[in-house]
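Usage

Read records sequentially. Each one opens with the input sequence:
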Amino acid sequence: MFFTKHNFQGDRLKVVITGASGFIGSEMLKELVRQNDYDVIPVSRQSLDFQGAILTYDFSNLPEADVLIHCGEPSVASSVGKKEFVENIYRATCILKKKYSKIIYLSSSVVYGDRYHFNVNEDCPVNINSCYVKSKIEVEKIVIENSGIVLRLANVYGRKIKKDSLFENIFDQLKKPESVIYLKNVTSERDYIFIDDVVSCVIGVIKGQVRKGIYNVGTGDSFSVSKVVNLFCQSLEREMPIVTETVPLDFRSILVLNVEKIKSSIDWIPSVNLEEGINILVKGYKN
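and closes with the structure output:
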């Protein structure tokens, strides 16, 4: 089925964003406000300097709206245990009782695992190997059963360095003059997408007539950890250090997305490649 347009002609769309103080939610909020085409209601468990923001732990109190963007979940896999799993399911159930015209759930490509040696499409089986992945899959099912849209995001990075991320680890070490840095491994390959491209994709889904279901959101390009280190070195104008692996792998760990489905569904393509994105990130910290 297609979503029908709701208040697109004339009236401003009302959009609720959960997790509006988070890494992705805060950028989503900023861009929707900048475009000035939407009445935005940010929801967060942390205080926000935004008129009309809702501070709550209880998603049963969310306001009615045309569109819901749900990104109010833990982003660090290791932080999700049984308690967080139950909380995530409860929040999703509360959200869907509101009967929003369009629900967009920001999930993660980590649900595929890291053993596919080709660009993964939406039909590939998932690999439920943790509470984090199990939580994502269960919320996805709830959203899709209620005619929602699931966006499985590649590794998202932006102007700010995400806490406890590979980029933070690399950047913190490269800022120092040491000739050796320590990383778990350098062979893992991932798909990295700049935050602005994620935001523009979500806005494209808001505006477009998109079928319910699952969509991969990434670049479709693969970068190893060693290549990421090299790009940071180029941007910082420093020599490539010796990289010591602390947990070397005995298999090829790779997760790269096939994004043809989302590209053919809305007028969207990722516009920032990894080299450009890292340059933006480093420039921001230098300034």
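Summary fields computed downstream for this record:
- The CA atoms of residues 85 and 135 lie 5 Å apart.
- The chain is about 35% helix and 20% strand.
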